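Can anyone check this?
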Amino acid sequence: MNPDIGLIIIGDELLSAKRRDKHLENAARLLGERGLELSWVRIERDDLARLSAVFRETLHSTSLVFSLGGIGSTPDDVTRPAAAQAAGVPLMRHPEVVRLLETRFGKAAYPNRIRMAEVPQGASLIPNSSGLIPGFSLGDHHFLPGFPEMSAAMMSQIFDERYASLRREPVVEQLFEVYDVAESELVPIMERLLAACPEIRLSSLPRGGRPWRVEIGLKGSDPAVEAAQSEFTRELNRSGITWRQGARLAPGRLVPAARVGDTAGAEK
């Protein structure tokens, strides 16, 4: 069973659409490569009271959580004190981060940059391969920088070092386009497919257009998807429905249909 894995993405600039989020895409790719999936995502403001309440909820859950952003040294960076409040502990200057800042910046580390050495009491550090300021962990809750590529590298390291046992066979998704049939008319076929192949997940998305199209996705391990797509195409053919096999989606990449053994497209 997939563990409950969540993202908390922090920043007013994301909620105002001033900046486009990349954390979700990175996390989905990293997890997909390990056969895992995100369970939930929240985007939150840089607000101390609100973040404290959010972290209080997630710290007392059984979720594996990544918090992204708000661990800098400016007044709008309130993730550190919010995490400490939620955990009910004080902020402490971690001596290892103090040494890092003093080595890098000398006297210029004070009075402001040194704030990045503050972590909730009892937190462990998350190394930053870029040589910049580390993140920190409170149990299974990991606080990372707001820079997407930097946090993605740190997240990958956390999974490989702490959660290797969670790794599953990578998840793939096979897409189909079904033509000239209402989505509701496909429900019985979908239900029979899920009953026959309970290990896969199914998605349905009307695409419209002329001819009318419905996109069906079958997601799971590669063997499970192979079995499900055989069952699905038999059902479609039995019902006289016109269809076309689309792309095979793998973690972080799209594989054209011609590369997964079905160059015929799809026809009734």
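Reply from J.R.: I decoded it. The chain has a mean pLDDT of 91.
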